[in-house]
TrEMBL record:
Cell cycle is among the record's keywords: no
Keywords for the protein's UniProt record, in alphabetical order: Disulfide bond, Membrane, Signal, Transmembrane, Transmembrane helix
Annotated PANTHER family: NECTIN-2 (PTHR47387:SF1)
SUPFAM superfamilies: Immunoglobulin
Top-level taxonomic group: Eukaryota
Places the protein is found: Membrane
The protein, known as: Nectin-2 isoform X1
PROSITE patterns registered for this protein in UniProt: IG_LIKE (PS50835)
Presence of keyword Transmembrane: yes
Positions of the UniProt region annotated as Disordered: 350-384
Segments traversing the membrane: 325-346
Signal peptide coordinates: 1-18
Length: 458
């Protein structure tokens, strides 16, 4: 409400006064291009006329216009009035320089209204050229530059950040160019290890709110990293068709794989080599040695060794033997069978118990006593129940028989012992009573005491 009123008043004022000098608060121009600074007088008075207009830059007079006396501009090669008229005296600056940045004030004398002025901030910017490259290095323990990112000739200065999982240090240098632009060179420095090879790294240049991401991959050259695969600690006389594989990583990729024995003796006649794989056609005493694989790339060579033990007989406890596999399978089958049995028993018991609980919680109307003809399963259930109920039974036996039970009643609710006539009630209260007592004498006192225990227990 207040807002609308304010606007209304301002509007009213404008209509009444209806005169103002219009300039832009802010103008941005690109280096070497041009910028236009508007300045116009708005009035309801048809007869209002600019009698003189002067543009100041940071307080200094740079251009003057008078309908009577003409135009005077300091740097007329680059600065002009654009179609000056009785009400408008815009200024154009061409071939923008960084030094053109500043506060421009348009000051006009209006006849007959008087003097008006307005100020515009002119910013000169330059979009930088961004580039990045990796510096290929050789693994070592000296920290060195592995990637460089350049943002050249930007204004205002750009910002450079790096994103990578490889820990390192950043050094960034800025050069203030004579044209008012800035050049940034940022280096990413690490102590190059072979694990950094091929890792991703991104240089992000931020300028004028825009981000430019340049993704790269590090390149660290290193001598091959070698491992030997294929020995299962169960090499024995006369075993056939085993092999050792020489795995190697390297930058540049390894070119030469050389298999030898560690002690310098020639390779046994029962092995043959094909590139990175050493095949053992049939094992004999000569294979009982240490094999060495040496891998070479442009950076250097590295070797790995595999000690081999040739046994007289197969190692039956070894995980790789057929016997071991069969034994393992049998053991697994037995284990599965045991687990399955246990699970089945547990499930059966839970089913019995939940069935009982359901009956209890459903309440009297839902309960239906099982027909006496199919008693056999419940007999079994009772036996399970007996097992579960051992502790309460024990309690009754060790105390002063029946006398104790009702008095020391461990029930949370005070349930009285029902007489034989109260069978129905007891059934509703505890269905187990029914299940257990039907085949036996319900009037037996000991049974009654015993019968209560399920309620205690459940
Ligand atoms: C970064 O520089 C610090 C100080 O010069 C140095 O201790 C550290 O090891 C460098 N970090 C890496 C990853 O090179
Ligand atoms: C370069 O420009 C920045 C930002 O304008 C300024 O802070 C710095 O002092 C300048 N450096 C040199 C050497 O002129
Ligand atoms: C292999 O050498 C080991 C000792 O290094 C020895 O105990 C074993 O008997 C040798 N095996 C054969 C088949 O000669
Ligand atoms: C058989 O191989 C296993 C596992 O490789 C090893 O622990 C065990 O010592 C070997 N048995 C013999 C007799 O060498």
């Amino acid at each position: 409400m207040q807002w609308q009123l304010t606007f209304l008043l301002i509007g009213l004022c404008e209509v009444l006064q209806a005169q103002e000098l219009r300039v832009n608060d802010k103008v941005t121009g690109n280096l070497l291009q041009e910028a236009l600074l508007p300045c116009s007088f708005v009035s309801a008075d048809q007869n209002a006329r600019v009698s003189q207009a002067i543009w100041f830059k940071d307080g200094a007079n740079i251009a003057a216009y008078s309908p009577a006396l003409g135009i005077k501009v300091k740097d007329s090669d680059r600065i002009q009035f654009v179609n000056p008229s009785d009400t408008s005296t815009p200024l154009r600056i061409t071939k923008l320089l960084a030094s053109d940045e500043g506060k421009y004030t348009c000051e006009v004398s209006i006849f007959p209204e008087g003097n008006f002025k307005g100020t515009t901030q002119l910013n000169v910017q330059a979009v930088p050229q961004n580039s990045a490259n990796v510096v290929q290095v050789v693994a070592g323990d000296q920290e060195m530059t592995v990637a460089t990112c350049t943002s050249a000739n930007g204004r205002p200065p750009a910002q450079i950040t790096w994103q990578t999982s490889v820990p390192g240090n950043v050094t960034t240098d800025m050069t203030n160019n004579t044209d008012g632009t800035y050049t940034l060179i940022s280096n990413y420095r690490i102590t190059p290890t072979w694990t950094a090879d091929g890792e991703k790294i991104t240089c992000t240049v931020t300028h004028d709110g825009k981000e430019t991401a340049i993704p790269l991959k590090l390149s660290v050259q290193y001598t091959p990293v070698v491992t030997i695969e294929g020995y299962d600690d169960n090499w024995h006389l006369n075993r056939k068709g085993a092999s050792l594989t020489c795995n190697a990583q390297g930058n540049p990729p390894p070119t030469i794989f050389k298999w030898t024995t560690a002690n310098g003796s020639p390779l046994p006649p029962s092995v043959h080599v094909n590139g990175k794989i050493l095949y053992v056609d049939q094992m004999d005493e000569n294979v009982n040695t240490t094999f060495k694989c040496e891998v070479t790339n442009a950076i250097g060579s590295r070797a790995s060794q595999q000690e081999v033990l040739v046994r007289e007989k197969p190692n039956s406890s070894g995980a790789g033997t057929t016997g071991g596999i069969i034994g393992g399978i049998i053991a697994a089958i037995v284990a599965v069978a045991v687990v399955a049995t246990v699970l089945m028993i547990c499930r059966q018991q839970r089913k019995n118990r939940t069935a009982k609980e359901d009956e209890e919680f459903e309440g009297p109307p839902a309960y239906k006593p099982p027909p006496p003809t199919i008693k056999r399963p419940t007999e079994e259930a009772k036996e399970e129940e007996l097992l579960e109920l051992k502790p309460p039974i024990h309690f009754i036996e060790t105390t002063d028989e029946l006398q104790m039970t009702p008095n020391k009643d461990p029930l949370p609710m005070n349930i009285e012992f029902p007489s034989a006539a109260d069978d129905d009630y007891l059934e509703q209260l505890n269905p187990i009573y029914n299940e257990l007592s039907l085949p036996e004498s319900a009037s037996h006192k000991e049974d009654q005491g015993f019968m209560m225990s399920p309620a205690v227990y459940v």
